Amino acid sequence: MVRSPQDANIESREARRRLTPRQDPYWRLLDKGCHLGYYKGEELRIWIARLSRGKGRDTEERVGLADDFAEADGIAVMDFEQARAAARNWFAEQAIKEAALPIDDSPFNIVGPPCNRD
Hints:
This protein has a single domain (13-101), classed as Double Stranded RNA Binding Domain. It has two helices and five strands. The protein has helices at 13-17, 80-98, and strands spanning 26-31, 34-40, 45-52, 58-66, 77-78. It starts with 12 loop residues before the first helix and ends in a 20-residue tail after the last helix. The model has no long low-confidence stretch (mean pLDDT 86).
């Protein structure tokens, strides 16, 4: 039986500072099937979105650098809240692609994230 990842405290720089560098990201559940990861290497710190579709069909996407060494700009370097928002946007894009809809900025082209599907 596969064990589900436990939520790691990755919200603040201080909490992330206490984490040990390792090969695998630390994960935080955002919604069912949607996780935000924090990879802490010796020198590199990045945010990762992971969409779990079941049966080993996980998809991951790097969403930005963590603000551990530089101030967040919301584009390349992100704090936790910015990374969570970027991950949710990526989840929504994946749902739009799954539904074979065009990706545009129209307010009528809104599909819920695929995380909450059973």
